[in-house]
Amino acid sequence: MKLNELKLTNPYLGLPDECYDRVEASPLDKPYLIHANKAVAKILNIDESELDTDDFVKFLNGDHSVEGSDTFAMCYAGHQFGYFVPRLGDGRAINIGTIDKLQLQLKGAGVTEYSRNGDGRAVLRSSIREYLASEAMEGLSIPTTYCLGLIGSEHDVRREQIEKAAIVCRVSPTWVRFGTFEYFASQGMFEELKALADYVIDENFPHLKGKNDVYTMLFNEVMVITSRLMAQWMSVGFTHGVMNTDNMSIAGLTIDYGPYAFLDDFRHENVSNHTDTEGRYSFTNQPEVAKWNLQRLMQALSPLADMDKMEKILLIYDKIYIRYLHYYMCKKLGLEGTVEGDPELIDDMFDMLETLHVDYTLFMRTLSHYEGDREALLSTGLYHNPMNDWLDRYDARIKQIDKTERKKQMLRANPKYVLKNYMIQEAIDAANIGDFSVVDDLFKIAKNPFEEYPEFERWAGATPKEFKNQKLSCSS
Ligand code: AMP
Ligand code: MG
Fold this sequence. Notes:
- This protein has two domains: 170 residues, no CATH class; 258 residues, no CATH class.
- It is globular and about 65 Å long.
- Strands 2, 6, 7, 8, 9, 10 and 11 form a seven-stranded antiparallel beta sheet that branches.
- Helix 3 packs parallel to helix 16, helix 6 runs antiparallel to helix 7 and helix 10 runs antiparallel to helix 13.
- It is of the alpha+beta class.
- A hairpin with a 3-residue loop joins strand 10 and strand 11.
- The two termini are 34 Å apart.
- The protein contains 16 helices and 13 strands.
- The site of adenosine monophosphate (AMP) has 16 residues, from loops.
């Protein structure tokens, strides 16, 4: 379909007026295309030939009216670092409408009623990070929001220094967050709360419609998909960095990519966010924080659903999370199902990797090729004994498993590449001087991280020492 044939709908605007602010995008000066995501365009039924037209740039810049588009920003609240902020909302994201249940949003497209002191803009650096990370998650089959395209501009914005503004067009089956529910509950707006829950069920959980105790069931589903998401993050070594309740998708997706990081060396306590001085959102804390966030959601839903029942549901969160974690880790270890002793084998592997300062992605990929010769594996760590001990146990465990099958499964479960921050920084540094080729390269490996790319071999090794475990600022 051509861009001018698109028809957008806006089901969210069927909710009461208090749920949003109708606002138009403020386009950027001299916009230009940096990257277009062909696969996402295809899902949206947009012709590939449209992606290198001026109209596409205008579309991403909010400067192109599409039939049915009625632009708005959404209102939400949220617990940020444990403290409740009663009113947040899309301070710089303008929703432009829905195509086939997928909602398009322009992040960085100007101020809204919810901008507070912000300028409604997003800098190029953080937009590149969001664009690449969402593709990386998709490549790893981890639920995520998508990006349709990324534009840069000559528009100056002030952060710690003057930077250029950009816009990413984000696409998701929902932009509702735990914090959206918290907003209505905390305002005592129970009719709006119910309308929001019904809307979410209609759009994202249609199989629940008409069920008894439907809001309790909604909570149950969100609990399950959130626990699965946490297990997936933990299994690939992803630290989100800002797990505030306003950054938790009601549909169990990874959203709002800020100071995230894929692990370099395996470190339980890895903290990627520079402002997180207490380590609240450290790598290892994520499953527990997600549970805490689910408690906030549970409280927000309490006017609609039975608190006792929801509390019981939350009691099984740990068990479900661990089951998922073991499921994903057993796949990564090439084990068929989880048997007695596997949980200890997994935990001890993590401890061993941490002790030996081993690059997590490199180790798992190298282990996928392991057939008894330990040299390549041992060279990933500082010293040998703990790894030899662990490998003795692993050898015993895989003895009965077919070698070829195991290798096949492991190469599908252990990416050759993850987008570590030093790699993305390389793309940003080049982009800042007008060279977007590294964005293209990283997009390619993000999309298919299980493939081998001889030309990108340098990104498959351990992170260079000087770039390991760096923290990122929240400013974006
Ligand atoms: P984040 O940390 O990106 O999840 O943002 C937290 C809140 O601050 C959200 O409500 C954002 O919309 C808002 N926000 C962040 N940056 C800006 C900005 N430059 N202008 C306006 N609002 C912003
Ligand atoms: Mg956010």
